Amino acid sequence: MKLTSRCLRCVQAELRAWWLKGRMTKAALPSGTSSLGGKNGFPLKKGSEPNIQTILMFCSRMDDRGEVKCIKFSIGNKILAVQRTLKSVDFINFIPDYPHTEFSQECKTKNASVLGFCWTSWNEVVFVTDQGIEFYQVFPDKRSLKLLKSQNINVNWYQYCPETAVILLSTTVQGNVLQPFAFRNGAMTKMSKFEIELPVVPKPAKLSLSERDIAMATIYGQLYVMYLKHHSRTVNSPGAEVVLYHLPREGICKKSHVLKLNTTGKFALNIVDNLVVVHHQSSQTSLIFDIKLKEPECAVNTHQPVLPARSIHPYRIPLSGPAAVPTQPPVPCQLYSSSWSVFQPDIIISASEGYLWYLQVRLPPAVRLLQDKGKLMDFLLRRRDCKMVILSVCSQILEAQENGSLPVVATVFDKLNQVYKEYLEAEQSYTAAVESGPTRGAAAQKRPVRTQAVIDQSDMYTHVLSAFTERKDVSHKFIIAVLMEYIRSLNQNQITVQHYLYELVIKTLVQNSLFYMLHQFLQYHVLSDSKPLACLLLSLESTYPPAHQLSLDMLKRLSTANDEIVEVLLSKQQVLGALRFIRSVGAHDNVSARKFLDAARQTGDQMLFYTVFRSFQQRNQRLRGNPSFNPGEHCEEHVAYFKQLFGEQALMKPSTV
Amino acid sequence: MLMISPKMASGAQEKQFTQSLLSFFIYNPTLGPREGEEEKKILFYHPSEVEKNEKIRNVGLCEAIVQFTRTFCPTKPAKSLHTQKNRQFFFEPEEHFWIVMVVRNPMIEKPNKDGKPPTIEYQEEEILDTVYGAVVRQCYSMYKLFNGTFGRAMEAGGVELLIQKLEKFFYRYLQTLHLQSCDLLDVFGGISFFPLDKMTYLKIQSFVNRVEESLSLIKYTSFLYNDQLIWSGLEQDDMRILYKYLTTSLFPRHSEPELAGRDSPLRPEVTGNLLHYGRFLTGPTNLKDPEAKFRFPKIFVSAEDGYEELHLIVYKAMSAAACFMISASVELTRDFCEQLDSLVGPQLTLLASDICEQFTINRRISGPEKEPQFKFIYFNHMNLAEKSTIHMRKTASVCLTSVHPDLMKILGDINCDFARVDEDEEIIVKAMTDYWVVGKKSDQRELYVILNQKNANLIEVNEEVKRLCATQFNNIFFLD
Hints:
Chain B: One of its GO terms (biological process) is vesicle-mediated transport. Chain B: It holds the Pfam family Intu_longin_2. Chain B: This is CCZ1 homolog, vacuolar protein trafficking and biogenesis associated. The structure holds two protein chains of two kinds. Chain A has 17 helices and 27 strands. By secondary structure, chain A is an alpha+beta fold. In chain A, α6 runs parallel beside α8, α7 packs parallel to α9 and α13 packs antiparallel against α14. The two termini of chain B are 47 Å apart. Classes of the chains: A alpha+beta, B alpha+beta. The interface between A and B is large, with 39 and 34 residues.
């Protein structure tokens, strides 16, 4: 794992200054800021950077209006909402040509205090109060809000997942009954509530589920509520756990996964690239879990970390700006500091250093840490930037060439081709749907996305196989076995093998003079027919004569290569054979007579020339009622030669009948 | 040994005798060049009970014929000698070593009235040179497969060793020669390939590669199913003779217990938790037997520097057989065999059932097998692939054909005609028995068809053969 601040670098100085001024201390950071850096938090993403100036300007203008509890842009940075009191939220338009004057909205419920608010679209906002939620639509032009819907419920605290627009409310005295609400297009849906199992039920009942131990995130496209279940001394468990509750749009929320942390202490959660990352403060390490990785030795939904615990890659703060001296080394940043705040999905804020980072997963070290190559592939194939890593793993496996690595190679190929095939199928059904017209549900079908996990034959060829077959220190037996294994795997997944792979096989076989092996492969059509392959075989004839027959057979099967067959036969001076062949396929009427006559003359066999010549005269007679050749056929030279050999009278005369 | 098969000809008390082996000997003229030492030339003589002087006379005669004919064509000495009663075949496989086989012509014994001795009619033209010439060459190839060249034995232990080896090998081998059932297939010496889809074939490849990788002692592997070849790691010529041995000798010897059923030793082995039907056809019959010997037959195959000696392990599970060949310099142990058994047994069992399943599916797709109007033999010189719908399954003792020997003789004759020229050609013959026989030669391929349509004319026969080519051989290039 490593930290990046790439999107932030330019705004760093300002933000830092702003934070350190104490306008927004850590304590003042409301829980709602979990969306910081996300869709509707601070406009931190590239392209929206100018807005930071606006915020700063704005902030400096509202100094005297009381402490800012929370500040959030609506989606698309259209409207800024600011909460200063427990009763109301203020709004400022950031849409050009709209009035810039602030307007305010008080919560409707009597005696309720606003715990926070969340934007669910560019103009819809939800107030969460201790007594329920209020769903508003904002009219920036009228500088007013309209209540769309509200719900009374006692709220201890809440969490918001901006990606899915789902708000999770903690209710009941113990706080462990969670009530989710989903928002979409002005509609509010109450989802089914669920209860988090507490390790110890306190007596008398008191608030026992802290909002710090709950987080929401989308993993593999599904919304999960993650509960950090601390180790309890009374229950005999070896360590803390993260319990994942799957929260479907419809249906009941179910406990779905348990991640074993095998240790105790302070933890924080992030989601990066669909991996659950659990930071452990005291050991200064992080654990990575992949909920799709099946663990055979564990119960169905219990997961152990994919990799051993590792620390985040050290981050050095480059000193930049006018104060920076070039010779000054970058300052290492304190990792796992107690001043860190972690936000979903992948944000870490270091309040003391004034940094906001995105957490990233670095895949290359995982290669060394995961011994089981099959499992490693499963892991890598689900990652975003996996292609080069996967290809390098393939090369590594082939290079290592340990005894018994062939089954491993086979497993890896099968896994890659499974993903490759799924993509091809999706692409195919999409194309079919598009072709069948928009009437038949094609609109519903999206063009399949080609992720990096789709590793096709040209990737394998370019990055792995072609270099591998060049290696001199590897036995040809192993090289051929690997190539065959790849071809087998492609075939098993019904993927059409590209001819360059066959050429690689043939090249390797020929280099090692394994012609009989090649012959057998062709005999069983392991190397599928194609014109390029047939031509390659023809070129092998001088070193391996049977290649001629193999090539002709292949051309015959292609059934589109009749011209090539004629060429091959003529080049072998099998003029009659060529003539008989062209007749048998019914193309006799269209072939160039000159080509045949040339070949026949070259043989020096006068009778052969006579036969071929007469055969074409007969053809002309049949087609045009005249045995003579058309000027366009350029056969004058041959007519003259024929006369010279056999005399004028041997020429066929136009039939008078 | 005289092979007599008396047939009752219509009415008359005729007795028919098929061709049979009269004698078989091997000699080297350089071993006894001086007068009085002629016996030394003879390395092997069958039948051994023949009187010494007669042996010397016969060998001398052959020597003389070969020497005499050499004056006409030094590069091509005589290959056979036709006489009224028998025919002799000469073959010089290694310099100065000659193998001679004398076959008695088939004959008919017609009883005479009045108590006169029966007249014997020799059918001199019934025997084909090509067929029996091939049989002699096969004898040598088979010897060489198991013993290496004559020269090798001479180097290793002089004439004594060679004589000993020849005696040991040919004593048994000649008993298995069934001259009366030799035909065109012996000329071809082809290999029958098992038809298989690409995917199953690739699975077999994968299996072979994995086994060779984990048991790195294995140098070559060949794979057969139903006595038909699927994969050969050996070169073509070595595989040809090994295939001959497997299908005409080793497999038939082991198929009887399988067919016997109840008392068969075919009980599934359990390795780990996997059930398998694998067993060794060569080497130990029972791995668990503490007395078991781990000795395998040794074979000689060609290598870059002459030949190499290999252990031949034949391992079979159901209808799938794998031959593993390991350098003879390695001592094979119980450990190795157990390892092989536990690795190969389960996988081979699985593959065998996979192949069987695929095979039945393919057969179902291609429709129920109708008894065709024609029978054919196909052979491709390039890959030695042969296919015959004329021959029944070969067993250890006989090779059954479903057509009359006369027709087989016509096929042989056509083959001789083809051998004479390089060009592609086609020959159509109407046999005495109203069958049509068609021979086609295209490039390196030969096809012989026997049609049972006595009323058909030449054009119809030609059309029929074209149809056959289009249906049975549509994926190869066959000139019309």
